[in-house]
UniProtKB/TrEMBL annotation:
Its EC number is 2.5.1.141. InterPro entries: Protohaem_IX_farnesylTrfase, UbiA_prenyltransferase, UbiA_prenylTrfase_CS, UbiA_sf. The chain crosses the membrane at residues 38-55, 61-84, 105-125, 131-152, 159-178, 184-202, 233-250, 256-276, 288-310. The lineage of its organism: Bacteria, Bacillati, Actinomycetota, Actinomycetes, Micrococcales. It catalyses: heme b + (2E,6E)-farnesyl diphosphate + H2O = Fe(II)-heme o + diphosphate. Belongs to the UbiA prenyltransferase family. Protoheme IX farnesyltransferase subfamily. This is Protoheme IX farnesyltransferase.
Length: 316
């Protein structure tokens, strides 16, 4: 396939007819539309938030229904994102094997699938959890599909900053599923993920900056200098750590979360500062190590929320 050709559509047979696909292959295509690896990260933040809101174990039924509803909502939003972005996905090495690009799933089927999952998620959460959680899930879908994908992504280098609001919503959904309300603790957890998103995503965008440039997506590492990006990463990381520590005086958490927040924040802060120092020295590629920061950000968030989940069960 040349650089000017589109992605290979998997068909064969006479007259270009599509080769028959197994039920398993079709199901895998639809699962891929939901971006399950991203959803795993979202669910990691939801369950610990539920534990904290409940001061222990919520009912297993509530956890199950909230998780299913959250997966449906995030999966629907991701499928709609892939439908809207299928043109630029075809231009990027990282995304050119997505189902709507390869032809495994037709655009129309992907659109219907995304809308259906979104609608089912709202009804599911409303009837089986509460309508506050359902409303927050609908808000998350609209933020990701409309605000981020349709409005911000192709227009501004701050796309991932404000578009990342959608990824912060699971903590609000998790808290409201238990309490029916949203507290200041939940708002600060929201802030942690909001400020975490840029230093999490910009290193990935740095690695694939050529892809984004060719696709015409103005991610910050594409349009700004590395020094500017690294300075903004330090700022967001500092605000993230501050938000995580501001939860402690509210009294909802104990020493386990406190130790986890301080230790994990210091460790990730070190990774970001080291990255900025490497940028200042003019390093690039593997020597710069953007993916170390990317994977480190995932570890940070996991450690922080595992500490949050354990905290209600440990007392001195």
């Amino acid at each position: 396939m040349t650089a000017t050709q589109g992605p290979t559509v998997r068909n064969s047979g006479r007259d270009g007819e599509r080769a028959p696909r197994s039920v398993g292959a079709v199901l895998r295509g639809y699962v891929a539309l939901t971006k399950p690896r991203i959803i795993e990260l979202l669910l990691i933040t939801t369950i610990p938030t539920m534990f904290l809101a409940a001061g222990g174990f919520p009912s297993p039924w509530l956890i199950l229904t909230t998780m299913i509803g959250g997966y449906l909502a995030a999966g629907g939003a991701n499928a709609l994102n892939m439908y809207l972005d299928r043109d630029i996905d075809a231009k990027m090495k990282r995304t050119r094997n997505r189902p709507l690009v390869t032809g495994e799933i037709s655009p129309r089927a992907g659109l219907v699938f995304g809308i259906a999952l979104s609608l089912v998620s709202a009804v599911w959460l409303g009837l089986l959890v509460n309508w506050m959680s359902a409303a927050l899930a609908v808000g998350a879908i609209l933020l990701y599909v409309v605000f981020y994908t349709m409005i911000l992504k192709r227009r501004t280098s701050q796309n991932i900053v404000w578009g990342g609001v959608a990824g912060c919503m699971p903590v609000l959904i998790g808290w409201s599923s238990v309490t029916g309300t949203v507290s200041w603790t939940a708002v600060l957890l929201f802030a942690v993920i909001f400020f975490w998103t840029p230093p999490h995503y910009w290193p990935l965008a740095e690695k694939f900056s050529r892809d984004y440039a060719e696709a015409g997506v103005p991610m910050l590492p594409v349009v700004a200098s590395r020094r500017s990006v690294s300075r903004q990463m330090i700022l967001h990381t500092a605000l993230m750590i501050a938000a995580s520590l501001a939860i402690i005086p509210l009294g909802a958490t104990g020493w386990v979360y406190g130790v986890g927040a301080v230790a994990s924040g210091a460790w990730f802060g070190f990774l970001v500062v080291r990255y900025a120092m490497r940028v200042h020295r003019g390093l690039s590629g593997k020597a710069l190590g953007p993916m170390v920061v990317f994977h480190g950000s995932i570890t940070y968030l996991t450690v922080l929320f595992v500490a949050l989940a354990i905290d209600p069960f440990v007392t001195l």
